[in-house]
Each structure stands twice: as C-alpha cells, then as structure tokens.
Amino acid sequence: MKLSDLRKLSIRKQLRIRFRIQNGMECVINEHGVAQVPAWRGIADFNLEDELAAAPEFLVEPAGAPDAKGVVKPRPVTREELAAQVTASPAGAAAEHDED
User: Fold this and answer.
1) What pTM was computed for the model?
2) What is the CB neighbour count within 10 angstroms for residue 94?
3) Based on the structure, what is the number of domains in the chain?
C-alpha cells in the first residue's frame, strides 16, 4: 500500500485518513487526496512514504456531513483492513492488471 493508493481511496470514497508519524505528529490525507502534516512547520525531515510503511493503525472518517447529532466519528482501522479497501476498489484492481 502506497501513499498514492490512499490518496485515490480518499478521493473516491470522500474520506479523511489519518495516521501517526514517528515524530509524534499526524498525517492527514483529506478528501481531495492531499496529504498534510498540520503541525509541521519548516522543511520536512521525514518521508511520508516511509512513515506510511511504518504506520500500524489509521483513523478513517467520512468527509461529508456529520451524523444526526452533528458528530463525525473517526473509525480506527488496521493496516490490513485499509489495504483490503485499497485492493477492493476498481482503480486498485485495474492497477494490478496493468503490471501483467
């Protein structure tokens, strides 16, 4: 699973995907496919692709309207669950066939 896979998933399903990076900050991939580290100031001394590879858990939340109580609840998912969502998507399946 690569950062580009998560970016595509977040756009297709209109999700925000969050994961912790090793320096204690958080990376957020928004519903537009943009990966951001909101607390970071200055030049990055890390590689998000490497940080993604080390992330064991993710928080996924819908980017759309909140539920009836006005609350959007993030849902924790494991790396395996998120990878399954990526491979189950039509674009993920098409990418696999391109390599054949």
Assistant:
1) 0.77
2) 9
3) 1
Phi-psi bin for 56: left (phi > 0), alpha (psi -120 to 50), beta? Answer: alpha
The tens place of each residue's pLDDT in the chain, 100 residues long, gives: 899 999 999 999 999 999 999 888 999 999 999 999 988 887 878 899 999 999 999 999 998 766 566 667 889 999 999 999 888 866 544 555 455 4
Give 58: exposed, middle or buried? Use CB within 10 Å, 0-12, 13-18, 19+.
buried
Structure tokens at 73: 């609840």
Q: Which domain holds residue 28?
A: 3-98
11 Cα distance to chain centroid: 10
